[in-house]
């Protein structure tokens, strides 16, 4: 039985992502923060972790990117999960009773239009499923949570509305993290971090190595270095495995164009079609 850490409580979307990737027999380990997921993987308390990296509506999860910068773990897999939000309450609560809605900031943002139409106030929490659990434990009759249908079932709560996300194409991309590299796969992605000198053309020259080697970029994200103002680390995902000849050539050339480079790992691309 594989042991996998995730951020949140039982019923969180990250746990759902674990089951979709590892199967229902996986042993899931809830953590309060994404940092704790990374630390448990580093300490080998668990074999793997699953962390969100971006949502198709609200964009990147910056805490995950920042942890990759300082952590020794490897990216070893990718999961794309369709997110369907529900409005969840105590069994005796109706939609008209709801005055405040609790959830993770991303879930609240993804359901902003619906919640605005209800005229309710919103309160941020660390987790979607954790909000459902909190409402049940505190017996909050005028409150509801934005979370998954599975969370409602786990905690024996009532679903007031389904599919409340503002956009139908709502997906979250997760990465599997491990202390070990993934096995080579014919349909791979590679994730890296790099920084460049602070001078004209530096980023252009760095990204040019991928075009020259016919490598397709799938994601680029910048994060402050926190060492000097207005200087950045660039997180890049691209198609291909780090052991492929064209990728090795690109990475070797990139090393000459950058001041820092870190390969996070190569892993199979998610099989879920959007």
Can you walk through the features of this model?
- The protein has 274 residues and is an alpha/beta fold.
- Helix content is 30%, strand content 34%.
- It has helices at residues 13-22, 34-42, 62-70, 105-110, 112-118, 128-138, 149-154, 202-212, 245-257; strands at 3-7, 27-31, 48-55, 59-60, 74-82, 86-89, 100-103, 121-124, 143-147, 158-162, 171-178, 188-195, 217-224, 232-239, 260-268.
- Strands 1, 2, 3, 4, 5 and 11 form a six-stranded mixed sheet that branches. It has a five-stranded mixed sheet with strand order 8-7-9-6-10.
- Strand 1, helix 1 (13-22) and strand 2 (27-31) form a beta-alpha-beta unit.
- The protein is elongated and about 65 Å long.
- It starts with a strand and ends in a 6-residue tail after the last strand.
What is the rounded Rg? 20 Å
Q: N-to-C SSE series?
A: EHEHEEHEEEHHEHEHEEEHEEHE
CATH architecture descriptor text of the largest domain:
3-Layer(aba) Sandwich
Proportion of beta-strand residues: 25-35%
CATH class of the largest domain: Alpha Beta
How much helical structure, as a percent, in the residues? 25-40%
At the fold tier of CATH, the topology name of the largest domain is D-Maltodextrin-Binding Protein, domain 2
End-to-end span in angstroms? Answer: 30 Å
Mean pLDDT across residues: 94
Please tell me the total number of domains: 3
Q: What's the CATH H-level homologous superfamily of the largest domain?
A: Periplasmic binding protein-like II
Q: Tell me about the largest β-sheet.
A: 6 strands, mixed
């Amino acid at each position: 039985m594989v042991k996998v850490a995730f951020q949140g409580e039982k019923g969180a979307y990250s746990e759902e992502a674990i089951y979709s990737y590892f199967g229902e027999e996986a042993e899931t380990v809830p953590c309060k923060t994404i940092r704790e997921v990374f630390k448990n993987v580093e300490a080998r308390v668990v074999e793997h972790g699953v962390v969100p990296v971006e949502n198709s509506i609200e964009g990147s999860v910056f805490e995950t990117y920042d942890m990759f910068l300082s952590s020794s773990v490897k990216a070893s897999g990718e999961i794309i999960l369709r997110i369907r939000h529900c409005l969840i309450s105590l069994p005796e609560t109706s939609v008209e009773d709801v005055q405040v809605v609790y959830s993770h900031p991303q879930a609240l943002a993804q359901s902003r239009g619906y919640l605005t139409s209800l005229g309710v106030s919103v309160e941020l929490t660390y987790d979607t499923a954790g909000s459902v659990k909190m409402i049940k434990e505190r017996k909050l009759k005028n409150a509801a949570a934005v979370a998954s249908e599975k969370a409602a079932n786990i905690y024996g709560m009532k679903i007031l509305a389904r599919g409340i996300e503002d956009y139908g194409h709502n997906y979250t991309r997760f990465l599997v993290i491990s202390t070990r590299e993934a096995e080579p796969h014919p349909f791979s992605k590679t994730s890296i971090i790099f920084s460049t000198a602070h001078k004209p053309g530096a980023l252009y020259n760095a990204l040019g190595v991928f075009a020259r080697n016919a490598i397709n970029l799938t994601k680029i994200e910048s994060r402050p270095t926190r060492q000097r103002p207005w200087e950045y680390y660039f997180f890049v995902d691209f198609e291909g495995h780090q052991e492929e000849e064209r990728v090795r050539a690109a990475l070797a050339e990139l090393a000459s164009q950058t001041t820092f480079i870190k390969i996070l790992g190569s892993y199979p691309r998610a099989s879920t079609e959007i």
